[in-house]
Design brief:
This protein is of the alpha+beta class. The chain is built from seven helices and seven strands. It starts with a strand and ends with a helix.
Length: 167
Amino acid sequence: MIRLYKDSDFAALYATINSAAVVYKGVIPTDRWKDPYMPADELAKEIESGVIFWCWDEAGTILGVMGIQDVKDVTLIRHAYTHPTYQRMGIGSKLLQYLTTLTTRPLLMGTWADAQWAIKFYEKQGFTLVTEEEKYMLLRKYWNIPARQVETSVVLSNTPVKKLAAE
């Protein structure tokens, strides 16, 4: 079942993100990898900054998480992870489909350029990879990430970017 994150879920949220993020090790640039991938203080800051997490919960166990965050005139999909044991079972798809119903704003998703499995997942869900020029514009406008992460990331959108650039 999909449900809103509660403060008491913090440990499970942290564990799910970090267990699932292990797939990035050796794929993303080594200077962007850290262990744990998302330290607890960083996760707390993400929540404080307005990332609203939704959980896939089965019998009280969180198997997947995905966040949304309204920034200016768009909604960002943030920190989408499914516990490794439960990947490829539709949990991520169902979470994303649910989150898309929560907003009428354009949706953007950023991920690592070398995470081809993630890019393919979002493309299957109807997102389109933006051009390199559009990526730089969107990452500067809607995210607050280091320059090195900008260089090594991609952005996918469910809305033509020309509409976003005009606003």
